[in-house]
C-alpha cells in the first residue's frame, strides 16, 4: 500500500531493468530494493526500516524463485 506502481516502474527504469530477458544478480536486486525502500523511508520514516525491509524482501524473493 505504501508503494505506487509508477514509483516502482520508474525505479526499474532508473536501474535499466526494463528488459525481461536478463537475469539479475543478488547485488542488483539489493540495489533496486534499497532504492525503493529509501524512497519509502523518506515518506514514512516511522514505518520503514530499510535494512530490515531489504533483507526480508530479498529473502522472500529468493524463496519464491528458488529452483
Describe this structure in words.
This protein is mainly alpha-helical and 67 residues long. It has a single domain, classed as EF-hand (Recoverin, domain 1, Orthogonal Bundle). Helix content is 64%, strand content 0%. It contains 3 helices and no strands. It is globular and about 35 Å long. It comes from Cirrhinus mrigala. InterPro entries: EF-hand-dom_pair (IPR011992), EF-hand_dom_typ1 (IPR015153), KCMF1/Dystrophin (IPR050774). It holds the Pfam family EF-hand_2. This is EF-hand domain-containing protein.
Largest sheet: none
Overall residue-averaged pLDDT value = 89
Total number of strands: 0
Shape: globular
Cα radius of gyration in angstroms: 12 Å
String of helices and strands = HHH
CATH topology: Recoverin, domain 1
Structural class from helices and strands? mainly alpha
Measured between the Cα atoms of the first and last residue, the distance is 29 Å
Helix content: 55-70%
Strand content: under 5%
- Ranges where pLDDT stays below 50 over 5 or more residues in a row are none
By CATH, the superfamily comes out as EF-hand
Pfam family, one: EF-hand_2
InterPro entries: EF-hand-dom_pair, EF-hand_dom_typ1, KCMF1/Dystrophin
Protein name: EF-hand domain-containing protein
Domain EF-hand: 1-67
Secondary structure: elements and pairs:
Layout: H1 5-14, H2 26-43, H3 50-64
Helix pairs in contact: 2-3
Protein name: EF-hand domain-containing protein
Organism: Cirrhinus mrigala
Pfam families: EF-hand_2
Amino acid at each position: 500500500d505504501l508503494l505506487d506502481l509508477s514509483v516502482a516502474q520508474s525505479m526499474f527504469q532508473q536501474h535499466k531493468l526494463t528488459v525481461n530477458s536478463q537475469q539479475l544478480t543478488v547485488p542488483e536486486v539489493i540495489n533496486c530494493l534499497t532504492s525503493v525502500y529509501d524512497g519509502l523511508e523518506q515518506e514514512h520514516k516511522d514505518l520503514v526500516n530499510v535494512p530490515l525491509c531489504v533483507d526480508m524482501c530479498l529473502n522472500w524473493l529468493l524463496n519464491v524463485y528458488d529452483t
